[in-house]
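User: My collaborator sent over this chain with a note saying "see what the structure looks like." That's all I know about it. Can you take a look?
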Amino acid sequence: MTGNGIQTYDATATPQTSPFPMTTGIKIFAIPADAAEMVVKCTVDMRISEVADMATYFTIDALTTQAITLANSDFLYIRMDAEDGVLNFYFVLVN
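Assistant: Without extra context I'll predict from the sequence alone. Here is the result:
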């Protein structure tokens, strides 16, 4: 995907920045309004979901770079599969 730039922090009131220390608890990332994708890479296996309780999710293996399409998304919920880790991420921005 071709974008107009990248952003290494989310859109929460107190931005979460990359690299971000993660625990097994659920973390909420607010998607910037002009973000088309979020590219992630974590030091441990992680789960991502569009629902807050993470009843449904997609697993991303440790040290794997994955682009997540965000069209019309407000939040992305992420948690580590089994242990603490570090999440590196950026948003691909389009105007």
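A starting point for your reply to your collaborator: The first strand starts at residue 5 and ends at 7.
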